[in-house]
Specification:
With 318 residues, this protein is α/β, with parallel strands linked by helices. It is 43% helix and 20% strand. α8 runs parallel beside α9. It is elongated and about 100 Å long.
């Protein structure tokens, strides 16, 4: 007789990013895939590097695969946040330059199998279970074929699932690129958690924002939060907090919500008082009308007078 196995509850791994683990009530989905999307320059690479750096600090090895930046540029960007990646590489943080030339992709048939086989060997040697694919949209652009893009995305999804990786994948979404909506759609096939990063600018100020779009099998804070990038990486500006469903982790809630609730409550109370006054006036008028000798309301007297004056000719010559 086959025994039914009870499905395991979703587990999460902390990112160590200030505020993000509170928004998600624990961090990223363990052994699943998280996709970060946004326009260029919104902090996607910093987010993934910060996650791997914090994991390395705890002795957890990880692999960073870049399809856009070379290793030198990555180390410079990390240094601006106060991270010495050369030092972290000693703690099993592996940086891999996977940039490809257009000719290497478009000549003959291309697939990810060779690269993924190499990554599996590296992960086995270092015991890595966390992996980042940064700017995968660059690779998909080189493929220049929607069916090929879909095939490689499914191939990557199956590989990540079979090997039990906790993965982070970043993709640039350009509003002027007609292929961006298609790439966003196919990335949702492999995403268990989707995080959107944005950048808003006006003549007087600029701000970055983050919003969790989906999180399969778990609750999360759905509203947009602003964040800054500085020494130490990303730090989210969390709003006020209420009780969290996860013990030990606060659940953020916007203070504007509480102010709006109080304002609405005050308006409802004022409306109740207004209705009570109007009901009392209506009751009084009905009682006076029933007696037959009640005063005629001023509004009615004015209306009758205006009718009479309107029906008579003017006493003044034209």
């Amino acid at each position: 007789m086959n025994q039914k196995t009870k499905p395991e509850a979703l587990t999460k791994v902390p990112t160590g990013i200030g505020g993000f683990d509170e928004l998600t009530w624990g961090g990223l989905p363990d052994k699943r895939t998280t996709v970060l999307v946004g326009v260029p320059g919104t902090g996607k690479t910093i987010f993934t590097l910060q996650t791997l750096v914090n994991a390395a600090r705890g002795g957890v090895p990880g692999i960073f695969v870049s399809f856009e930046e070379n290793t030198r540029r990555l180390m410079e960007d990390a240094a601006s946040c106060g991270w010495d990646l050369a030092e972290f590489q000693k703690k099993k943080l592996i940086l891999l330059d996977a940039r490809m030339q257009p000719g290497a992709v478009k000549v003959g048939h291309f697939d990810l199998m060779g690269m993924l086989a190499g990554l599996r060997a590296v992960a086995t040697d270092h015991g890595a279970k966390r992996i980042v694919f940064d700017s995968i949209d660059v690779l998909l652009t080189l493929l220049d074929d929607r069916m090929a893009e879909l095939q490689e995305i499914f191939r990557l999804r199956d590989w990540l699932s079979e090997n039990g990786f906790t993965a982070l994948i970043t993709a640039n979404l350009n509003t002027g690129d007609p292929s961006s909506p298609h790439r966003y759609a196919i990335l949702q096939f492999i995403s268990d958690c989707t995080v959107s990063l944005g950048f808003r600018q006006d003549p007087h100020s600029a701000s970055r924002n983050l919003r969790i779009v989906k999180y399969r099998g778990a609750g999360f804070f759905e509203r947009e939060c602003s964040f800054t990038i500085g020494r130490g990486g990303i730090n989210l500006a969390l709003p006020g907090r209420t009780e969290s469903p996860v013990p030990g982790l606060p659940n953020p809630a916007h203070p504007e919500f509480e102010l709006a609730r109080q304002d609405l409550s005050g308006r409802v109370q004022a409306l109740d008082r207004f209705l009570q006054i109007k009901q009392a006036e209506l009751k009084f008028l009905r009682e006076q009308q029933a007696l037959g000798d009640g005063p005629v309301p001023a509004a009615r007297r004015g209306k009758s007078s205006s009718k009479r004056s309107g029906s008579s000719k003017s006493a003044f010559p034209v």
